[in-house]
Amino acid sequence: MAPPPVALITGANGEIGRSLLERLHQEGRYRVVTLDLTPLPERFRPMCHETYAGNILDRYLLDQLAAHHEIEVVFHLAALLSTRGERDPDLAHQINVEGTLHLMRMAQQQSSRLGRPVRFILPSSIAVYGVPTLDAKAAQPRVREDQFLEPITMYGCNKLYCEHLGRYFMRHYRSVGASNNARLDFRAIRFPGLVSADTVPSGGTSDFGPEMLHAAAQGRPYQCFVGPDARLPFMAMPDAVRALLTLLDADRGALSLPSYNVGAFSLSAQEFADRVRRHFPDAAITFEPDAARARIVDSWPADVDDTQARADWGWSPIYDLDRAFDEYLVPAVRSRYAR
Ligand code: AKB
User: Fold this and answer.
1) Cα–Cα distance between 49 and 31 in angstroms, integer?
2) Which one is the CATH code of 79-337: 3.40.50.150, 3.40.605.10, 3.40.50.720, 3.20.20.140?
3) In ligand 1, which atom is closest to the CA atom of 232?
4) Among 15, 81, 234, 299, which is best to mutate for testing ligand 1, by the most ligand atoms less than 8 A from CB?
5) Which ligand 1 atom is at minimum distance from the Cα of 300?
6) Are strands 231-236 and 265-268 parallel, antiparallel or unpaired?
7) pTM exceeds cut of 0.70
8) What is the pLDDT of residues 183-205, one digit of tens each?
9) What does DSSP say about strands 303-304 and 142-143: parallel, antiparallel, or unpaired?
């Protein structure tokens, strides 16, 4: 029997990466090769066919990866998130754009070599949106994929441009001159703020939600860096991983967009704090807004319209607000910090 095909995960050591790795390992459909700046912790290594510690900007390393493995699927998760990106926009551009370009080029070459399209999955973000005012945010809470595409962060600009790059590589790469028998098959999801019970995110601006929850579960006070009215869409991590895998498996012919919104639930920071207090009544949460970070959150939509993902590839979240907290987040963080 032929061995399972190879899937490459970049940024495997990050929040989505670790959850995705565990899920792929359970399913056993792929031999997983990982690439991350930092070595994977010991417990994840047996889940991988091979692990590489290195930089996606290292083209020599990417060439080596491509030479050693017939990569059929790329999950390109490595990125510098929105807050970190504003602290160092040049670095954000390098990692988020140049790194993605290198990887798309590699996936393109693999597609030509294998004679079939490598599927390239990119987690994009609600950061691609730039809603101009709070009035506009209130008037249009559920934003469609083609609205408000004027991001105010380097990270948002990078993600939006990478969506275009993916579409270009899939449909138009080298359309003049060289012949192309197989282009890569690009698919992207614009994720809301993700909340995981296993990891605390770092460098993002939707981080206030998960930070609040993890602080409360550890009995630590938390100063929220946005005001109580700041509202964002959120999603539980298992749904995010399921979204990636469902989009991966979708029929190419059914996909009408290169990049899709996916929604689950929308919460203000106050509502998030109230939910947390419902389960951890002693949680000491205060609001001490940081103007720059609060402005970023204000520019992101309150919620997303995911009609197209539902219609094209059957997207539907398992975890609505109640289930996310009652059945996943709270029991899992409790047991995590009880250990
Ligand atoms: C961030 O806050 O930068 C990310 C995102 C919304 O993409 N979590």
Assistant:
1) 5
2) 3.40.50.720
3) 6
4) 81
5) 6
6) antiparallel
7) yes
8) 899 999 999 999 999 999 999 99
9) parallel
